[in-house]
Each structure stands twice: as structure tokens, then as C-alpha cells.
Amino acid sequence: MINADPTMLQTLFENLFRNAVGHGGFDVTVRVQPLPDGFLVEDTGSGISMDLREEVMEHGFTTGYSGTGIGLTIVQRIAEDHDWCVSLGVSSEGGARFEFRQC
After folding, report:
1. Nearest to residue 78, comparing CAs of 30, 23, 1, 6?
2. What is the mean pLDDT of each run of 10 residues along the chain (103 residues)?
3. Beta strands 96-102 and 30-35: pairing type?
4. Which strands sit side by side in the sheet containing 38-43, from one edge to the other?
5. Where's the Histidine kinase domain (predicted)?
6. N or C: which end of the chain has fewer CB within 10 A?
7. Rounded to an integer, what distance in angstroms lies between the CA atom of residue 40 and that of residue 93?
8. pLDDT of amino acid 23
9. Which domains does the chain have, with CATH numbers?
């Protein structure tokens, strides 16, 4: 079970979904699954390269797909507000994987 502000959790999901569609197209699949100590959100898009994983959460960072560079910053701030640690990885299908766990 996840204890979270419902509005903030919705905003977190919206930003991750928007990011997945923006980079993976309209046929991208996004999954949300529980973890023993949190949850994960993963997609079937092109993923986030290793050299960009630190930067993607920074305010204003964008790869130029017409984004503003604030979506993943918002995700990071919501996670911090809930005392969650965020780790980025690769989904089982090569897309992005965000894991949220209690710090």
C-alpha cells in the first residue's frame, strides 16, 4: 500500500505518462506495478540513456521534443515530498523504468 497525497500522485503519473508518450509515441505502453516497498512505472519507449540519467531530473533539462524540461523535475519533487527515493533504469522491453521506494 502506498500512502500519498492523491492529487500529487496523479500529477506524478501524468508527468511520467506524458514523458513516455512524448518520447515513445502514441503506441507506447506504460505499466504501473507494486514493489514490496514502493511502486514502479515503466514504459516500452526508447528508454533513457545512461549518460542522461542524472540530468533528466534537473529543472529545465529537455531533449527537445517540444517539452519544457519541468515534468521529471516535478516527479522528483513529489517523490521528495513523500520521502521516496527514485531510481531510473531500463524496463523489460527497453524503455524507461522509474522505481519509487521509501528512503
Report:
1. 6
2. 93 94 87 96 88 69 66 92 95 94 95
3. unpaired
4. 30-35, 38-43, 96-102, 84-90
5. 1-103
6. N
7. 14
8. 77
9. 6-102 (3.30.565.10)
